[in-house]
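Protein Record: Sequence and Backbone Structure Tokens
======================================================

Structure line: whole-number tokens from a learned vocabulary of local backbone shapes, matched to residues.

Purpose: to set a sequence beside its fold so the mapping can be learned.

___
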Amino acid sequence: MKLNYLAFAIPFFVLLIYIEYAITKKKKLSGFELHSVIANLSVGIAERLLDVFVATIFYFVFDTLQKKYGIFHITPTPLLWVLLLIFTDFIWYWYHRLAHEINILWAVHIVHHQSEDYNFTVSARITVLQAFLRGGFWCVLPIIGFPAPMIVGMLLVHGLYPFFIHTKLIGKLGILEYLIVTPSHHRVHHASNEQYLDKNYGDVLIIWDKLFGTFQKEEEDTEIVYGLTKPLNTYDFLWQHFHYFIEIIVAVSKQKTLKDKIKTVFGRPDTLDPNARKEAEKIFNVKQTQRVIEKPLNTYVKWQIGLLLAALFGFILIEKNVSAVFSTVFTLFTVLTLINCGAIMEHKRWVFNIEFARAFLLTLIPVYYFNYQTIIVILLVAVTFILARYKYLERQYLSLVYSKQ
């Protein structure tokens, strides 16, 4: 059996998150609200799962580009690894900067900035759409001539470092502040304070920001406010991912000329119609939820996320040995579970519909693998019973889930 040992990154990072949480609580610091933690982890779970497929696609793309169009034929040497790091970080800087300056790119990246807390879990707020987008930027590397194994190896290392800069526990780091992106630099990047907006785009090296005029140091006398300048105020998993795309569509629909529509799509986020958010929320009946921190996190949500992390570890570990059908069902089940958790945190009544869909998905596994007529008959009877008693079961479910927090 072929195992994917990258799966062990999941328990490693969960342990680090717990350590950070424990230290934060011991020092009685703010910035670790559990509802926000679940929202952050939910985005990360979806990205890690879908990245299993994305990574395979981009390996093929990098390999094809290098073999067919590579300008040079590069072989790994210590110097070329260093050069690859510099190129990778330089491309990241420009991808990251453009993702803040162009609406359609900001729609992909905005999810990373929605959290109003700042801790290790914020590093998980990377969507699979962002993975696709930045992968497209990195396609220049194989064209230069770097082979796919080198690129993928570097991206793993390059993607590991940012996890450690999403924290408030580490102060300024002396001379390192002049060379690399530190937690202090990145706290500035995640701030919504006006003086800190659109600063410090670097991922590993801070030199790009200093070269291109986007550097801002963290001021000791300024309290940082994290999150968006216009907070989203919802735990809705799907809305967090797609709200800005819808806002762009709403804004574009109001433009009369093709030129103005294009300018809206590729314009700066600060020029987008400020009323687009309200109109988008009205269209999809999305209600903002003001966080009630004194409410404990729903126990059912805790269990679901905990079990999902364990299942994700197992799936990634053996993903090379499972069928396409199992992968598809597991992916759909995971996404439905994440939608379910966000809805429960907002006390939505339609979560029972999600539970029914999840249960139906789970029944597909034994039917597919065993195909016993008896199993199919039992499942049909169960589904018929549930549909007949749907309203009653819904009331019982909601009473059970929302009775205790």
Q: What stands out?
A: Residues 34-69 form the longest helix (36 residues). The chain is about 60% helix and 0% strand. Residues 5-211 form one domain. The radius of gyration is 23 Å.
